[in-house]
Amino acid sequence: MKRIKRYAKRFIIMLQFFTTIPIKENINCHAEDYGKGLVFAPFTGLIIGIILMGIYCGLELFFPHEVVFAFIIIAYIVLTGGIHLDGLADTFDGLFSGKSKEKILEIMRDSRIGTNGVLAIVSLLLLNYALFVSLDLQDIKTVLILFPAAGRMASLIGAGASGYARKTWGLGKSFIDFCDLKEVIAGSLIYTLAIYIGLGVEGLVIASLTILFPYIILKLIEKKIQGATGDVLGALCELNQTFFLICFMLYKGVIFKIF
């Protein structure tokens, strides 16, 4: 019973931290709960996706396909509070500054957004919109449910496969310090099962690619800052969501036509 309560607490913490869903529950938690709770990050992504799918089903009755996806992107930003997009912007500002590790981390911590950060957000949102609009109608609802799970899977991998880059405390320290291989494996199973249910056996290829991709990006980032931060976890989330959409489109549009 204690274990069930602990898991339930950590799941609620993930919903409270990664979404703007109004859960008015004052939970007594520790730093460990954030890192260990990341095992539920892919499931949190599925909940975000289900909400987005519901919004799509409502809006498609009144608006053209292209307009609906503009609303979907806005709804996603509102639903997540833009927390991962903020991490994406900070990460790109830091990594593309051409500075030393210490200066990169300083830039990433700065609340102000720079040119590289703006370009990263605009480019990714434009690409997401183009990918959404290009989806076949029969695939839209499934993709809307699954793509946020791919993003949160990437954050889990980023936390579990790296150390904390800063010498001082930061927002991502609790996640990175207390998330280990056990959480990554369990979260990967949740994520892969969701992909399998949604896309069938062929979806396992996409699941594998979207587990490998954030790990590769993480290792490239580690060459710059010798670890990860909360901003990096957010950047991995947003990048992997877009990568999921690209993989899905290539797999359905190219490989399916070949075979």
UniProtKB/TrEMBL annotation:
Q: What domain of life? A: Bacteria
The annotated topology with respect to the bilayer is: Multi-pass membrane protein
Q: Which UniProt keywords apply?
A: Cell membrane, Cobalamin biosynthesis, Magnesium, Membrane, Transferase, Transmembrane, Transmembrane helix
Subcellular locations according to the entry: Cell membrane
Q: Name one Pfam family in it.
A: CobS
Under which EC number(s) is this enzyme classified?
2.7.8.26
Q: Where are the transmembrane segments?
A: 37-56, 68-92, 113-132, 144-164, 184-217
Indicate the principal place this protein occupies in or around the cell: membrane
Q: What is catalyzed by this enzyme? A: alpha-ribazole 5'-phosphate + adenosylcob(III)inamide-GDP = adenosylcob(III)alamin 5'-phosphate + GMP + H(+); alpha-ribazole + adenosylcob(III)inamide-GDP = adenosylcob(III)alamin + GMP + H(+)
> Which is one GO molecular function term here?
adenosylcobinamide-GDP ribazoletransferase activity
Entry's PANTHER family?
ADENOSYLCOBINAMIDE-GDP RIBAZOLETRANSFERASE (PTHR34148)
Q: Which family does it belong to?
A: Belongs to the CobS family.
Q: Please state what the protein is called.
A: Adenosylcobinamide-GDP ribazoletransferase
Question: What species is this protein from?
Answer: Acetivibrio saccincola
